[in-house]
Amino acid sequence: MAEPQTRLGSGFDAHRFGTSPPVLLCGIEVDQSRGVEATSDGDVAAHAVMDALLGAVAMGDVGDLYPGDDPEVHGADSMQLLAQVVGRIGDAGFGVGNVDVTVIAETVKVAPHRQAMRAALAETLGVDLDAVSVKATTTDRMGAIGRDEGIAAAATVLLVSPA
User: Which is the most buried residue in 19, 31, 90, 147, by most CB within 10 A?
Assistant: First the structure.
């Protein structure tokens, strides 16, 4: 019998504010006053998780799988894209052990939406709620994010294979 394997992956994504609202994080509307410039719906949290998953199994990144010049990606629901990535991870023999997401923004407030974001991620990833962490931080007004020009997210995932 094969020994269980674990894989660690990390991901990052950032988008500039612009275009029409809303700002989405984990598929949840967190800011109805503005949007982000992106090919898809611009959900930086979902994109960071996708990159972390793909990186853990050495399958490239979001841009490899969903190139910006592909018309199918324009306006795409990032949580649906994440579900597709989860399917690929499963096909590779892995499941999600846990995920930790940090949203980096100066004025977008995560706390009022944290539980909904965790629940949406848990459902899409096929894990229990206690395997999903969502946190937020600012850059203390430093740099483009500190000037409130955009938003970013970083994610770390642990993948596990069955014993």
Answer: 31
Sheet holding 132-137, edge to edge: 6-16, 150-160, 95-104, 132-137
Q: How many helices, marked H, and strands, marked E, lie in the chain?
A: 5, 6
Give the tokens for residue 85: 């990535």
82 three-class SS = helix
In this prediction the pTM is 0.96
Alpha carbon 17 to its chain's center: 17
At residue 157, what is the residue type? V
61: three-class secondary structure by DSSP: coil
- Interatomic CA distance for residues 118 and 116, integer angstroms: 5
Instruction: Please give the CATH architecture assigned to the domain spanning 6-160.
Output: 2-Layer Sandwich (3.30)
Q: Domain locations in the chain?
A: 6-160
| Contact call for residues 95 and 125 (beta carbons, < 8 A) | no
Rounded CA separation 123/46 (Å):
13
d(CA 63, CA 61): 5
pLDDT (tens digit per residue) in 104-146: 999 999 999 999 999 999 999 999 999 999 999 999 999 999 9
